[in-house]
Design a protein that fits this description.
Elements: E1 10-11, H1 19-32, H2 39-52, E2 56-57, E3 61-62, E4 65-68, E5 75-85, E6 94-103, H3 108-120, H4 124-132, H5 136-144, H6 163-172, H7 175-184, H8 191-197, H9 207-211, E7 239-245, H10 252-267, E8 270-275, H11 286-291, E9 294-299, E10 314-317, H12 319-324, H13 326-339, H14 366-399, H15 418-433, H16 436-449, H17 454-466, H18 470-489, H19 501-521, H20 523-538, H21 542-558, H22 563-576, H23 583-609, H24 616-630, H25 638-643, H26 645-666, E11 669-670, E12 683-684, H27 686-710, E13 720-721, E14 727-728
Parallel strand pairs: 1-5, 3-6, 4-6, 7-8, 7-9, 9-10
Antiparallel strand pairs: 2-3, 5-6, 11-12, 13-14
Helix pairs in contact: 1-2, 3-6, 3-10, 6-8, 14-15, 14-16, 14-22, 16-17, 16-18, 17-18, 17-19, 18-19, 18-20, 21-22, 21-23, 21-26, 22-23, 23-24, 23-26, 23-27, 26-27
Length: 740
């Protein structure tokens, strides 16, 4: 840690007014020391991490961080802002800014030290000392642990041993060895090593052991009283095990762990945390998990080996909830334990991960949760769409448009006839397409209720096909199945019956309820609505069709692979997911694919014709965007949209709307749901179709170049020379284009 932060990596008068400017100012110090090789490339990685989740924390802290190939060694820069900078924290701007840069292959020892910083940020004395330290040398020493924060009560220090010794121990001991040593050490001793991660140790099984980390005179583990307790400890204290993890695994993972441990001490409960960070993780002792009364998951990536915690009352939230409101989580999980709520035991060989779409803050509104559940189903359905649709399209290309009338290849297949091979591909694709609605429904239910939702979800989806309720029926079946399973799981069940719940009881009851509702109650109205929508689409002509194409183009380019994009795409694929789709359905599919190709192709063209307006990293991304756009992968434009959303996204939407409208006006048709230019031979009116795409690409390119050309650097900043001799502004861009 001694060389991870030095005085020249500290700015106690940080004058930036945005998080982008703050990151650039601190990163420039890293570049000056040779710790970062490409300023713009590194900042793009920081922005990509920031886009996943804001890095502002309660208490006036901003902690932007990332792993990047442009970082030569683990580095930490610190800035102090008098005015405060908005990093998205609920309680307002941050005045303490830490920029953490980790190499793509950072070693475990350095990541362990970075996790130590994250834990220190939960110490009020540490942050108070940083706000009052008068010089950069003192700030760097304080962060390195060479100077202890001057608190009124020294018993609250992070270690009973000298801080410098602690830092030395951290620098030489891998995280796994350290944790192992902790698990074998008595709770009241080993103060130097216990100061780092005693609450994470698998063997830490008492509140006294946890409190011993902060109070030198704590009572031994298992004694009747302990430091921080208000009176005698109960004979059987409430025990919690927790897992924390974040996408990068450097900061929020360990800050959530520290926050939960602190809240556990205040609440008088025993809490042992397993941080699953970038340096790997040490599994909690199975005996500790078995003895626990409840579980808390604070994570933004799937919990590894989650089945270890099954069968206990559980609170499942995002990692920031673990940092910002740990006391509420502890109270919530204790209430669940009092009610006897528990997660179902995992089946043998069950996937240890969780549905990513289900992970999140329990305070999320129903609208946000609904979007995540639907996206869960769509994300699992798309591979079936691509595989089945392309096989069907190839079948038509080889065997002609009457191949859908061919007999089964089980009864008639001639190896030397192209028609037989066309029929084979068409029929395989038809089988794959037959899974679309059941998979959609099954994984919507999975997103809501995890594995127990799969059976009723698939059953409901299959019934939807049987009664001709189509995709609308699949959506309804998935939501109903997930809701039914969640309701069944809330019923208090005797412990002796919990083992058969996920295997027998939940599938039986939920499938029966979903089947009854789909067959008898809501199936017929949904089927009628599906037929009405299909008839309306088939009747679209002229201006109405053009307007629909423009709307779908806008949706495809609004969020570049996000929920709105997926709604438009699913709408189009639903129309061709039949053996004999009508012309309107194929026109819609063509318009959707054409519009989705526009943003990445336009960004590629813009970086080619006006490279001076883009950073070296963006120009490199532009080369890849040619291939991604040609392949109908809208996500190829995301790096450009993330860096400059107010110019890129509106420009893309204008071009996408034009392309969608022109495609519909030209009457282009498409039987394949994917493939980009590689399925042009399968497109009706292919020349005019390519004209529509080219028109949208040119319009988007022109708008992006125009809007970027109108911007100007912030006052007092000078442009930096780019790789091709051009110039690019070093200051963050204005939030709005500057008027001509």
């Amino acid at each position: 840690m001694s060389d991870m932060i030095t005085a020249d990596l500290v700015d106690l008068d940080l004058s930036a007014d945005t998080k982008e400017a703050a990151a650039r100012s601190l990163a420039a110090r890293m570049v000056a020391r040779g710790r970062v090789t490409d300023l713009d490339g590194f900042l793009a990685d920081v922005a990509a991490r920031e886009a996943q989740m804001p890095t502002g924390l309660d208490g006036g802290i901003g902690i932007p961080h990332c792993r990047s190939t442009h970082v030569t060694e683990p580095t930490l820069a610190f800035g102090r802002s008098a005015a405060g900078i908005d990093f998205g924290a609920p309680d307002g701007p941050a005045d303490l800014i830490f920029l953490i840069a980790a190499p793509a292959g950072a070693d475990d020892a350095h990541l362990t030290i970075l996790s130590s910083l994250a834990r220190q940020l939960m110490n009020a004395d540490f942050t108070a000392a940083l706000r009052s330290v008068p010089d950069p040398e003192g700030a760097a020493a304080l962060i390195r642990g060479e100077e202890a924060p001057q608190a009124a009560d020294e018993t609250a220090a992070l270690s009973t041993a000298p801080a410098a010794d602690e830092t030395a121990a951290l620098s030489t001991a891998p995280a796994a060895d350290e944790t192992a040593a902790l698990s074998a050490a008595p709770a009241s001793g080993d103060s130097a090593s216990a100061s780092q991660d005693s609450a994470v140790a698998p063997g830490a099984a008492s509140a006294g052991a946890t409190a011993g980390r902060t109070a030198p005179d704590a009572a031994p583990a298992g004694s009747a009283g302990s430091a921080g307790s208000a009176g005698p400890a109960p004979a059987a204290p409430f025990r919690i095990v927790a897992v924390t993890s974040c996408p990068t695994g450097i900061a929020h993972t360990y800050m959530a762990a520290e926050s939960l441990e602190n809240a556990g001490r205040e609440a008088g409960v025993e809490i042992v945390v397993e941080p699953q960070g970038s340096a790997g993780f040490t599994r909690l002792d199975p005996a500790v998990i078995a003895a626990a009364d409840a579980v808390i998951f604070a994570h933004d990536v799937p919990v590894r080996e989650k089945d270890r915690f099954a069968g206990k009352p559980t609170v499942d939230v995002g990692v920031k909830a673990g940092i910002n409101r740990p006391g509420e989580l502890i109270a919530e999980v204790r209430e669940k334990a009092a009610r006897g709520e528990a997660t179902a035991p995992a089946a043998a060989g069950a996937d240890a991960g969780t549905p990513v779409e289900r992970s999140g803050d329990s305070a999320e509104g129903y609208g946000t949760k609904l979007r995540k559940w639907l996206m869960s189903g769509v994300s699992y359905m798309v591979p079936f769409v691509a595989a089945g649709g392309l096989l069907i399209a190839l079948g038509f290309a080889i065997g002609g448009y009457k191949i859908n009338k061919a007999p089964s290849v089980m009864d008639h297949f001639v190896w030397t006839q192209a028609d037989s091979w066309g029929a084979l591909l068409f029929q395989i694709g038809g089988v794959a397409f037959g899974f679309l609605v059941p998979v959609l429904a099954g994984y919507i239910a999975y997103g809501m209720a995890d594995r127990p939702g799969l059976v009723p979800g698939f059953v409901g989806g299959a019934i939807s096909l049987t009664i001709n309720a189509g995709f609308l029926g699949g959506l309804a079946a998935g939501l109903i199945a997930g809701g039914v399973v969640m309701a069944v799981q809330r019923v208090r069940i005797p412990a002796a019956l919990r083992g058969i719940m996920p295997v027998v009881v939940i599938p039986l009851i939920s499938s029966a309820i979903v089947g009854f509702l789909m067959f008898v109650v809501i199936g017929k109205p949904i089927a009628s609505a599906q037929k009405g929508m299909t008839d309306w689409l088939n009747g679209l002509t002229g201006t109405n069709a053009v307007l629909l194409g423009a709307l779908l183009g806008l949706m495809m380019c609004f969020d570049l692979g996000g929920p709105v994009n997926k709604v438009a795409y699913t709408f189009a694929t639903a129309g061709i997911a039949v053996s004999d789709p009508g012309d309107s359905a194929m026109k819609i599919m063509a318009a959707v694919m054409a519009a989705g190709m526009v943003p990445p192709l336009a960004m590629a063209l813009a970086t080619t014709v006006r490279g001076k307006l883009f950073t070296p990293t963006e120009r490199e991304n532009g080369k890849a965007a040619w291939v991604l756009g040609a392949s109908f992968i809208s996500e190829g434009a995301i790096p450009f949209a993330a860096a400059d959303p107010l110019r890129v996204i509106p420009s893309s939407m204008v071009g996408g709307a034009l392309t969608g409208a022109l495609s519909m006006a030209f009457g282009a048709t498409l039987r394949a749901p994917h493939g980009g230019i590689f399925v042009v031979p399968l497109i009706g009116n292919p020349f005019l179709y390519l004209v529509a795409i080219a028109a949208g690409v040119c319009v988007t390119t022109a708008l992006v170049v125009l809007l970027k050309g109108l911007r100007r650097p912030a006052p007092g900043t000078a442009p930096t020379e780019t790789a091709d001799g051009g110039t690019a502004p070093t200051a963050p861009e204005h939030k709005q284009p500057v008027a001509a």
